[in-house]
Amino acid sequence: MTNASNTLWYNHPAKTWVHSLLLGNGSLGAALYGRTDTECVELNLDTLWSGYPDRVAPFDGDPYETFKKARELSLEGKNFEAQELIEKKFSSHNSQFYLPLGKLLITSKSGLKPRKYKRQLDLKTAVHKVTYTLGGKCVESEAFVSAPADVFVMKTKSEGILPDYSYTITNVVKHDVTTDGEFLILKGLCPSEITDDGEDVYLDGKKKGMEFCAAVKFVTDGEVKFNKNNVSISGAKEITIILGADDSFKKWNEVPDKEYFEPCKAKVRAAAEVKYETLKAEHIKDYQSLYNRVSLDLGESNKENTVTSSRLLQFLRCKNDIELYTLLFNFGRYLAISASREGSQAMTLQGIWTYKKVSPWRSNYTVNINTEMNYWPLLACNLPELCKPLNSFVEELAESGKETAKRLYGARGFTCHHNVDLWRMTTPVNGCASWLFWNMSGAWFTRHLYEYYEYTGDKEYLRNEAYPVILESAKFCMDILVDDGNGYLIAAPSTSPENKYLDEKGNDVAVSQTTTMTMSIIKDNLQNALNCAEILGDNDPAIDEIKEVLPKLLPFKIGKDGRLLEWYEEKPEEEVKHRHVSHLYGLFPANLIDVERTPELVDAAVKTLKKRGDGGTGWSLGWKINFFARLRDGNHALKLINNQLRYIPNPEVRGRGGTYPNMLDAHPPFQIDGNFGAVSGIAQLFVQSFGNRVLVLPALPDAWKDGSIKGMLVKGGATVNIEWKDGKLSKLTACGKGEFEFVYGGKSVTVTLDGSEKEIGELV
To answer: Among residues 302, 402, 506, 668, which one has the fewest Cβ atoms lying within 10 Å of its Cβ?
Structure first.
């Protein structure tokens, strides 16, 4: 691999946020523009949200009675009437907003025009670098966000004397900026609520919003002057700034009153006592311990000297940049390491990065696909530690969602609907039933918990953390089932996320007696609960219930045209090319539809995807890549990867999904899930695992005829290295413990691994 696989670089500063380059350590995020006059460092902190704990969801009447009436109407075929009732009486308030920490503004007073400009992000080191000349003297600026030190660091140096600089911080909510002779300090207060109209509401007492701070310390050989609300530095050859941040957040269900200001300053002070090169080396060592686990090589493109945005533009015209695929894969892994670390919050719609007070979709957790997709590639890419924030997130939802299950459905266990925020809101939002009335996110999330066990083999985690949550979700699923009148159990009523059909009167309807996605998630959840019980030897009474219920669940249905039905009955679609393909949940991420076990359902899935088309928003394209990987059609998957690499230069462009100049997913606007969906799909082209069965090169595209991928993790905890030549497997090694079946080219071999690396030559 060359730098073309591991570097984003540009010959001009960023014009907009989707041109900026991102840094992060899981909790503290930064977006840099690389400007030489007034650099803007957009800052984020993963726990900085509006709102407060225990926000009570208001309903018009008793929501459980509303649910029962809606179910009765739906079972009678009166789905439009059920929808009207749900939208009127089952909707509640929206989630709160993920907020920016602020903007660090660095103003240069040189007045000279920079020349030989270059900015880059090195994915191998997670270091941002800008170089240029001023008056013939080279200026260099490096920046990174250290996980070990938990600070943002930027060092600027010159062959001569640097220009005079001024530093200050701003924010979009209530804040003050001061100095104290040691630090530049931002202190702020988040709103208790941001209304649907974007208005800030500040309350007192237990409803008081989050307090927060950022502190900046300067290490320089120049003269530092602390002014009222800014710091100026002159006569320096080197300036290192160290920024830390903290807030009063304690826990999702506790009043935010943690001590944060003095600990923040202490953290920054400690980092400033360490030499810059040591800080940088410790950061790189920590980062590379994760990034270097996997390496992909598809060949070289000779694009090292081509600006990244130009590569994307050229790719529109001619798909001859094989290393752009590798760059997309590596950038997704970089983003995950930068946005999700043990102890951090789970990644939102924008990861940990946002620059607006009112971000698209509140930069919240949209949990009918998007949050789940953020974590799809991490286990296969040998990054299980990065899944721990999601595991904790789901465990907290299981606690928060118990009251929601009981109050809204009269059910045991827990449930969660369409949107979540820091305060673990699990109730419906307001608006259209196509999004507000979807209660399957909790059950979907239990798949992630079970897969974490499958990849890591951590039985204590399964016993103490995952299984209790999976079982509680299963209880909820069983409690909302009802006989459909034909001898099958269904969850009624139900929706298929954000999609609609047309009824006999031409109404747009989102509510159905049940939907294929809902029933697929329930089947998947109940089966995983049974698997857990068998592994752990558990005999909870709910397991006997599951064994009785599973055979009675409504099976998949195929329509007259051979497609998989999305709704309980065959209905004309409101939008044939809809971006969600929710009824294929059983194909991916679950494995209820399988090339070998269910060929009839596979044929129906293929016809479904053909009708939906190869377009879509960024994350929709990412999901489709995974579908075709599971269908073992690598060439079609590659077509969709090409679509996802479609260059979108303008952040305001609407319509087709693609990739922004900084390689972020263009929904549009920006959503990070498409980046992770693409990485997951690419990984599945090379290796897929089910239990101890490992499929090697199950969907290799013809165009990727030579290459290698090393360090991929499979279920059972083994790592595999794969090499291929002329489209054929040339070398396969694996390292782990236990018995595995490796499958390639119609052949299979069962191998017992003893912890040392073993070559599996029988399949070559």
So the answer is: 506
| Contact predicate 438/408, CB 8 Å | no
From 351, 321, 325, 256, select the one nearest 26 (Cα to Cα). 351
Mean pLDDT across 741-760:
97
Taken in order 604, 610, 614, 617, is the CA torsion positive or negative? negative
640, amino acid identity: L
Instruction: Indicate the pairing of strand 693-696 with strand 737-744.
Output: parallel
Structure confidence at residue 143 as a pLDDT band (50, 70, 90):
very high
Q: How far is CA 399 from CA 424, 469, 661, in A?
A: 9, 9, 41
Query: 218 near 153, Cβ under 8 Å?
Result: no
Give how far Cα 584 sits from Cα of 132, 402, 473, 560, 588, Å. Answer: 51, 28, 21, 18, 7
**With bands split at pLDDT 50, 70 and 90, how would you rate the model's confidence at 654?**
low
Measured between alpha carbons, how far is 486 from 554 in angstroms, rounded to an integer?
A: 10
Q: How confident is the model at residue 655 (pLDDT cuts 50, 70, 90)?
A: low
**Average of pLDDT values for 456-467?**
98
pLDDT at 668: 86
Q: Is the pLDDT of residue 587 over 70?
A: yes
CA 587 from centroid of its chain's CA atoms = 20
> Is 735:320 a contact under the CB 8 Å cutoff?
no
- Find tokens 């410790």 and name the residue: 282
Instruction: Answer whether 105's CB lies under 8 Å from 40's CB.
Output: yes
- Overall pTM > 0.90: yes
Long-range contacts at 589-594 (CB < 8 A, ≥ 24 apart):
589/372, 589/376, 589/447, 589/626, 590/447, 590/520, 590/521, 590/524, 591/690, 592/520, 592/523, 592/524, 592/556, 593/556, 593/630
Torsion of CA 320, 325, 331, 332, to 10 degrees: 150
Smallest CA-to-CA distance from 228 within 177, 189, 265, 186 is with 177
Q: Which two tokens stand for residue 224?
A: 């530092």
Angle between helices 276-291 and 322-339 (to 10 degrees): 110
Answer whether residue 652 shows pLDDT above 70. Answer: no
Distances, alpha carbon 64 to alpha carbons 403, 404, 413, 442, 678, in Å = 12, 10, 15, 19, 40
pLDDT in tens, 318-352: 899 999 999 999 999 999 999 999 999 999 999 99
* One-letter amino acid for residue 149 of the chain: A
SS3 137: strand
Q: What angle do the packed helices 63-75 and 79-89 form, to 10 degrees? A: 170
**Distance (Å, rounded) from C-alpha 66 to C-alpha 45?**
39
Contact 574, 500 (CB under 8 A): yes
Between CA 380 and CA 289 the distance in angstroms is 16
DSSP string, 38-58: EEEEEEEEEEEES--S-PPPP
Q: Token pair for residue 188?
A: 């702020």
Size of the chain in residues: 764
* Confidence (pLDDT) at 700: 98
